[in-house]
Structure formats: structure tokens, C-alpha cells
TrEMBL record:
Gene3D superfamilies: Uncharacterised protein PF01937, DUF89, domain 3. The keyword Nucleus does not apply. Its cofactor is Mn(2+). InterPro entries: ARMT-1-like_metal-bd_sf, ARMT1, ARMT1-like_metal-bd. This is Damage-control phosphatase ARMT1 family protein. It comes from Sphaerisporangium corydalis.
């Protein structure tokens, strides 16, 4: 059972817009975010040119991961960005962006997150204060309601995605709807297997990672999880994807907050210290491949989990394969290969979709709104 991969070369498609509009805009944004030196400006010029000419050039042979990309990119390098699978090409763009900013090279820019300034601005912003203060009001709610609120907080936190904000306006705030809601199944799975290990394949830093951490705190504090393993990216990726540095920044932000948020931050700090909350930065987390191709060590770790929760749009693309599935293709069927129970929390920001009944899709299509790609809609899907 397979469907054709999503590609950027379809006129009018969402993926084509990412290559034609979003990537050039992102290059301009990165250039302005930090006081880059002439060598970095020249490298960014070259990448902008490569994007404009629409031919993917190889990495420099001295790059530490040249061999890995040559292998992953067999038959792809040298082609147009839009003529290879969208998932692959988009991932390669972010790798080339790090090459242009000198992230992996000896020199002053090594290890400097080109998206650091936007991430820091968001984490220090007033919206975060308001979101954290809401926890004080929620503390008085019945436990079931509080748990449901934390799950929805983690789900909708995915809307705060800085890569997406580059070309999307405010229309996402207008409507919001869950097209699939398997949350009852999710909680019964967690309770039936409690206390077990919960793995979270995290997505964005800041306003998404904070509610993810609060959900992790809830699972630990309520005895629903022995430990939570938080998979983040080993290096900056898709603008706001969380890295280990972002995990540290978010736990610090929580611990410094007043009220319930601060208490949760203190508990998370201790959970980090005693190993009940473990960040991981597996190289596969930045690979341009679907989870079906995960390496054995990652497969073994996810197999040890009572539940794996995948966050966000990109992880969903990797979970189900970034393919043009008929929308009612059953989610359990496309995730049958996954090494254990899996739940996806995702706001819809790209075309791939499974497990939605055809009637719901037809009703939403009839609105004429881009509900599959605009982040206004979301889903909670579970394969037990
Ligand atoms: O942060 P998320 O939810 O993974 O969303 C990232 C999404 O943004 C895009 O990069 C651009 O829309 C998508 O291709 C990608 O799936």
C-alpha cells in the first residue's frame, strides 16, 4: 500500500509555494537576524542563487555529514529542488542553510543558531507570560479537565511555529477545529500501561515546547509515566525546531516563572537531574527520511515506550510518509510499522493527511478555505 510522494513541482501546490516564497523569505530573515561577516553573506548569496536557479548542489566534501547526505541523496543532488520528494528537499534546504551560516565549520559562527534571535524573542515575550499564568486558573479544575487542557495546550502549541509564520497571516486564528480526536483512546492507553516510558518526538521550541514540558510534568507527577524521553533535534532545523539548548532554556523559563508554572519548572528541573526526563538528540531526528526508515537503535528505544507522542506537522509527514494518501486511509494501517503505540498531535500545515472520514473532508473542502495547510485545523490520532 503506497501513494505517490508529495513533490514541489505541482503548479499551485502548497509545496511549490514553500520553495518559491518561503525559502527566499527565510534567507532574507536569517541574513538580517545576526551580524554576519562577509564570508557568511557570500555563502548566503550562493544559497539564494541555488534556490533561484532551482538546482540542488552537493554539500562541500569536507562537511562532517557529506557521506550521509550523499547516501540519502542518491539520485537527488543535481536535480531541481521541486523534482524530488518535498520532505527530502525541504530538509536538505535547512542543512544547506546551516552550511551557509557556518554552523558546523571552525570559526566564529560554529554552533551559533541562526534562528536563535527569533526563538529568544518568542520565549521572552508577553504571550508566554500570559500562557503560563493560565496554569494558575487551571489548577482549580477537576483533574480530568486539567489533563485534557494540558493535552490541548501541547496540541495547539504546535500552531506557534516560526517557520510557518514567515508567509502565513493571522487567518489561522479565525477558525479552529479537530478533524480527528482520539484523545480518549490516548488517555486510556496511557492509564492502561501506566506507569511506563513515554517518548515524545518534539517539534518546535518556545511556545510549543513549554506546553510539551508541562504535559511531561503532568505524566510524571501523576504517576502515569516512569520517565519521559524527549527527542529534539541535534541542530537547528525548520527554523523553530527544538534543540537541547532550547530544552534548557524552556526549563529555565518555567523554573523562573511565578505560580504553578514555576512549581512545574522546579519539578522538571529535578526530573532532568534524576533522569526521569531525558532529552535526546538523535541524528535521525534531522534526517530527510520517514520514520519507517529509522535506524535500529531508535527503533529499540521507541519499542520500549508505553506510548510515543509525535508532535507537529513535520513529524506527522515523517510518521505516515509524506505521500498523497486518500484522506480516509486508516492511520493505524500507515503506522503499522511503528515499533509501539503511537499518538500524533498535529496542526495541519501541509497536504498529507490520513484517517479523516471522506464526509468531513468534503465538508471542509466545500468551505473553499485551505484547511489542510493553514494551521487552523488539528488532529489527535492514535494507533494503540
Ligand atoms: O513545525 P511543524 O508543525 O513541524 O511544521 C513545519 C511545517 O512547516 C513547513 O516547513 C512549511 O509549511 C512544512 O513543510 C512543515 O511540515
Amino acid at each position: 500500500m503506497d501513494a505517490p510522494p508529495i513533490m514541489g513541482n505541482v503548479p499551485g501546490s502548497y509545496a511549490l509555494g514553500v520553495f518559491r516564497d518561503r525559502h527566499p523569505a527565510l534567507l532574507r530573515q536569517v541574513r538580517e537576524a545576526l551580524p554576519y561577516t562577509p564570508d557568511r553573506h557570500r555563502a548566503l548569496d550562493r544559497l539564494a542563487d541555488e534556490v533561484a536557479r532551482d538546482v540542488m548542489e552537493p554539500l562541500d566534501p569536507s562537511a562532517h555529514d557529506f557521506a550521509a547526505w550523499a547516501e540519502w541523496g542518491r539520485g537527488m543532488i543535481g536535480r531541481r529542488w521541486v523534482d524530488v520528494p518535498f520532505l527530502w528537499a525541504e530538509s536538505y534546504f535547512y542543512r544547506k542553510l546551516l552550511a551557509a551560516t557556518g554552523y558546523f565549520e571552525d570559526g566564529p559562527w560554529r554552533g551559533i543558531d541562526p534562528f536563535g534571535p527569533v526563538k529568544q524573542a518568542e520565549l521572552g515575550g508577553p504571550e508566554v507570560d500570559a500562557e503560563l499564568a493560565a496554569l494558575d486558573r487551571a489548577a482549580a479544575s477537576p483533574p480530568g479537565e486539567r489533563a485534557a487542557g494540558l493535552l490541548l495546550g501541547s496540541l495547539w502549541g504546535n500552531r506557534a511555529d516560526l517557520s510557518f509564520k514567515i508567509t502565513q497571516g493571522d487567518e489561522r486564528e479565525r477558525a479552529s477545529e479537530l478533524v480527528v480526536d482520539d484523545s480518549d483512546l490516548l488517555w486510556s492507553l496511557v492509564r492502561d500501561r501506566a506507569p511506563g516510558r513515554i517518548c515524545v518526538l518534539a517539534d518546535n521550541a518556545g511556545r510549543e515546547l513549554l506546553p510539551d514540558l508541562l504535559l511531561a510534568d503532568h505524566l510524571l507527577a501523576e504517576g502515569l509515566a516512569t520517565d519521559v524521553v524527549l527527542h529534539v533535534k541535534p541542530h537547528p532545523y525548520f527554523v523553530s525546531d527544538a534543540t537541547p539548548a532550547d530544552v534548557a532554556a524552556c526549563v529555565r523559563r518555567l523554573a523562573a516563572a511565578p505560580g504553578q508554572a514555576g512549581k512545574a519548572g522546579g519539578r522538571l528541573w529535578r526530573a532532568m537531574a534524576d533522569g526521569r526526563l531525558s532529552p535526546r538528540a538523535h541524528p535521525f531526528s534531522c534526517a530527510p527520511l520517514p520514520y519507517r526508515d529509522m535506524p535500529d537503535d531508535l527503533r529499540a528505544e521507541l519499542a520500549s515506550a508505553a506510548l510515543t507522542i509525535t508532535k507537529g506537522d513535520l513529524n506527522y509527514r515523517r510518521l505516515v510518509g509524506d505521500r498523497m494518501w486518500p484522506v480516509d486511509t486508516p492511520f493505524p494501517a500507515v503506522t503499522a510499522y511503528f515499533p509501539g503505540p503511537v499518538a500524533a498531535l498535529r496542526t495541519l500545515k501541509s497536504d498529507v493527511l490520513t484517517g479523516v472520514d471522506a464526509g468531513t473532508a468534503a465538508r471542509l473542502d466545500a468551505t473553499g478555505e485551505p484547511w489542510r495547510t493553514s494551521g487552523t485545523h488539528a488532529l489527535i490520532q492514535v494507533r494503540a
